[in-house]
Write a structure and sequence with these properties.
Blueprint (H helix, E strand, L loop, with lengths): L8 H55 L12 E13 L2 E13 L11 H90 L1
Antiparallel strand pairs: 1-2
Helix pairs in contact: 1-2
Amino acid sequence: MAIKFQYNKTSLQQLDKQLKVRERSLPTIKSKESALRMEVKRTKDEMQRLELQLEKEIQSYNSMVALWNEFKPDLIKVNDVFLSSKKFAGVIIPVLDEINFEVGYYSLFNSPAWYTEGIQLLKLLARTGIEAEFTGMKLDLLEHARKKTTQKVNLFEKVQIPGYQDAIRKVKRYMEDEESLSKASQKIMRDNLEKRKQNGEEAKS
């Protein structure tokens, strides 16, 4: 990133101001990146746990596969999924609050005895599946935020802060050289005036 500047005091003040803003912001951005990195890891672990849990539940479902032919598929359905949101390290992430199931009518006396257990198993499967899907969505949001924050840390640390520091050095060096030249030229002028004065005084005498 090319930093635009001019070799004068106003430009130096602006560069110094921009540098200070970035130096002050950097620790906060680094803390945010660290928090997001930890949350990404925690969410990945949670995702892995849910996937393993879903696998186990599907195996339980398969153990009853012969009985499912008697089961009415419209007996249970997901009626609604309730979500809210919260802020984590400045990032809005969704929160899964509740899964609402609708269970149809069935006779406890005339239906097979395992129906109640089957409904509970399907609820469990659906819940774990929705939670896994939801956790994957949350992970994508956190990963995206973490990548953007890491990019900002790198931009500040490796590009902008060194860039502003270099520009400030250049302007200061230029202004110091200008000042030295100005002092040198003033000295030459004073010396010349002194010589002329002395020559004038000698000519008079």
